[in-house]
Amino acid sequence: MSGENKSEIAELRAELAALREEQNRLAQRVQQGDDYRDLINLQCAYGYYVDKGLWDDAADLFAENGTLEIAGRGVYVGRERARAYLKCLPEYGHGVIFNHMQLQPVIHIDSEAGTAKARWRTFITIGWLGKEGRWGEATYENEYVREDGKWRIAKLHGVINFYAEYEKGWHKGGVPLLRSIDGLEPDLPPSFDYEAYPEPVITPFHYNEP
Predict the structure, then answer these.
(1) Could you give the 3-state DSSP secondary structure of residue 144?
(2) Which end of the chain is more exposed for a tag (fewer CB within 10 A), N or C?
(3) The overall pTM is greater than 0.90
(4) pLDDT tens track for 137-147
(5) Which CATH entry fits the domain spanning 3-172: 3.10.450.50, 3.40.50.720, 3.20.20.300, 3.30.70.1150?
């Protein structure tokens, strides 16, 4: 084989290696894009289910060993414990508003490991006809895991930034947080102690830079 042919073969092998590397890189980007979409859909589905009191549907989004912690009430460990907690929340029906909009995600995904972390905020409007109306806002620092090929909530941690009576407004102060659920003790204590507005609270970030 001539030197010229050897040189051409070497070039072709180098091009092939570069193409394979580029293919792998693009495949990883596609997987990350799919995972990002699936995680957005997962968290937003949770919000829609909570809006309408579909507690079983919301609980089914948790991993088998997933945890739930909301409003400093302690940590509930496992999908069925999350289900039990959710079913203690108000029943949806006539004259009830219980909206929890999922907004402003910052998501970091390890597609190869099948894990992810995300920071969200939720805008809350709740009320009962002729009785009470409130609005509020919370930060979520959540974790996710791919389980049986589907993304599931591994940790849902909601930190309430403020609750306020709708008619009074937040400039009149906030509603103190309810620290327990009657008849349902948590499995673990709260991750950290805090009080909502007018006290300042900054939920720890899972990242240093986006």
Answers:
(1) strand
(2) N
(3) no
(4) 999 999 999 99
(5) 3.10.450.50
